[in-house]
Amino acid sequence: MAGSAAYVPRRSVLYMPGSNARALEKARSLPVDGLILDLEDAVGPGDKVSARDAACEAVRSGAYGRREVTIRVNGVGTQWHEADLAAAAAAGPHGVVVPKVGSADEVRSLVAALEAAGAPAHTRLWAMVETPEAVLGVASLAAASPRLAVLVLGTNDLVKELRARHVPGRAPILAALSAVVLAARAAGVAVLDGVYNDIRDVEGFAAECAQGRDLGFDGKTLIHPGQVEMCNATFSPSEAEVAEAREVVEAWAWEAGAGRGVVTVRGRMVENLHVDMAREVLATDAAVRALAADG
Ligand SMILES: CC(C)(COP(=O)(O)OP(=O)(O)OC[C@H]1O[C@@H](n2cnc3c(N)ncnc32)[C@H](O)[C@@H]1OP(=O)(O)O)[C@@H](O)C(=O)NCCC(=O)NCCSC(=O)C[C@H](O)C(=O)O
Ligand SMILES: [Mg+2]
């Protein structure tokens, strides 16, 4: 949901292999808020260079309307990283997503590399948090550069590195998820939840979307078009939330006129901060409706 700054919708951010021409084409009409054109794990070694060219061409096409378009490069230290980063910077997407970012120093050197490659100002760094080292240092990592815009959880890599398991409810990684949300909020950057791997398990996916929303994530990363609708709905204010927010704002206006600093609405205490939250729900709802009209 929105923060206090202008609302940038990132409810649903869909990965697709940069090597999959059909997916790149299809994404032009999907109601997602963002796209990650992947050059890393979803692309085999033999396709790395052609996927890089296709992803950069897709960014340059300008064919994705209101959606934020990003490129996920191969990680620091791989044979493809430097050429990926230079090509992505030149194409000028909204974000360059870097996997397995480990520390604040690494954030600063990635930003320096983007700047050296001439990336336009709108091209921000999106850092993936998916290693124990990154989670342990996430507060300083998140605050390392004003060019860092988004933290993205990589829950597959994190589970692997922890030697944990994927279980319903995600107990093994809950502490890490919360640490990353805390760091993002403290630094004023956005934060996206990881992917749900079973594209047929609608119930499990719905539960994980709701959990991510309740933990404070701005949205969730996705792997399949069939996950978009549920994700958008979960990370948008519901009708009941909007109705309640209206009631709070109206009651406050009425009671504050009578000079009160605290009131009750349906038996619940309402103070200034609750009114701020209610106004934010209404602003997000208006923004989401405008997006729906935009396609
Ligand atoms: C998971 C998939 C391989 C499934 O592919 P497929 O079996 O082909 O799906 P469907 O037949 O159901 O596809 C139906 C139509 O939808 C299009 N499609 C499918 N996926 C996408 C997509 N991601 N974006 C856009 N369009 C998509 C198909 O082309 C079909 O279209 P049509 O021909 O018109 O019917 C596949 O979904 C897939 O490749 N998903 C993305 C995988 C990916 O990018 N993985 C990397 C990121 S996940 C990760 O690693 C996160 C992190 O690092 C971590 O550690 O957790
Ligand atoms: Mg990963």
Automatic annotation (TrEMBL):
InterPro entries: Aldolase/citrate-lyase_domain, Citrate_lyase_beta/mcl1/mcl2, Pyrv/PenolPyrv_kinase-like_dom, Pyrv_kinase-like_dom_sf. Mg(2+) binds at residues 130, 157. Substrate binds at residues 72, 130. Its cofactor is Mg(2+). One of its GO terms (biological process) is oxaloacetate metabolic process. The keyword Heme does not apply. Keywords: Lyase, Magnesium, Metal-binding. This is Citrate lyase beta chain. It comes from Nostocoides japonicum T1-X7. The lineage of its organism: Bacteria, Bacillati, Actinomycetota, Actinomycetes, Micrococcales.
